[in-house]
Design brief:
The protein is built from three helices and no strands. The chain is mainly α. The protein has one domain.
């Protein structure tokens, strides 16, 4: 089993990408008023609670209106 020090070069970039994706998602949610499904509060909760890539990806696939 690899120790944490060996996995850090993989973990750090993933965490950075995760927070960037979350930030972009939250900014997009706050700037737009219309969504394909749901409302602003719902998508903020989904994005923040499902923060580990899944929440933001769900928003961009199912909630973002072009």
């Amino acid at each position: 089993m690899p120790n944490l020090n060996e996995m850090m070069p993989l973990i750090i970039p993933l965490v950075i990408v995760q927070f960037i994706l979350l930030a972009v998602t939250i900014v997009h949610i706050l700037k737009h008023d219309t969504y394909k499904r749901g409302n602003r509060i719902l998508w903020l909760v989904v994005a923040i609670v499902g923060m580990e890539f899944i929440g933001p990806i769900l928003y961009f696939v199912f909630g973002k209106e072009d």
